[in-house]
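New to this. Please check this fold:
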Amino acid sequence: MQSYAIRPSALILDPPTGREYILTIRDLPAEEKPREKLILQGPEALSIRELMAVVFTTGTVKEDVLEMADRVVREYGERTILAERDPEKLSRESKLPIVKACQVVAVGELGRRFYDRNQSGFTTIRNAKEAYEYLHDMRNLSKEHLRGLYLNSRNRVIRDEVISIGTVNSNIVHPREVFRPGIEYNAAAVILAHNHPSGDAAPSDEDTKITEQLIRAGKILGISILDHIIVAKDAFASVKADY
C-alpha cells in the first residue's frame, strides 16, 4: 500500500509521479475524515483545520472542505477567525459563502458566551513581548492584518479584533475603524499590531506615521494607544507610543 505524507498546506505527494495535489476528503481513510475522527477520538484529537472542516460540513464546487478550512485558517488566523462577529465581513475577506461565514460566527459566539459565564481569569498584556506571544497566530499569515487588542484600565484584553486585511498605510487605516470597538466596549487603551509577511520586523516610516496619527486621535477620544507591534515570523518590533 502506498503512503502519502500530509503536509500543512493540505497537499500530498504522489510517489509514482512526484506530483503534488490537494488532499481531499475522498483521499482519507474513513477513520481520518474529520467528522468520523471526532466521533472516534474526541475533539481534542482534531487540528484547528479539521475542526473548521466539521463546522463547514461541505466544501464548494471550487474547493473541497479540507482545502477551504486550511485556506481560511491560514489566511485569517486561528485566533481571529472565531473572534469575528460580522459574517458579511468574514465572507467578504475570506471568500467564504455567507452561510459558512454565519456558521463560523455562530460557533465563535457560542464559545464566547460559555466562556463569559464560566470565566476564571483574563488575559493581561503589559508589554510588547506579551503582546507578541498573544499574537502568535499572526506570524505566518500570508497577508497583512491590522489587529487591535482593546484593554480595560487593568490591561486586561476585553476585545480582540481584526481591523483590516491588506496593505497597512495611513490612507487606508482610518481612526474611526480603529477606535470604534474601543468606544463600543468602553476600552481604556488599545495595542495595535500588524504583521509583515516579508519576515522583516523593522517598522517603516509609514508605520510610525500611522502610530502618531492614531495617538493624536486617541487623546481626543480618551483611549490611549499603548503601542504598535510589528509581528514577523521569528521576531517583533515595537513602535513605541511615547512621542
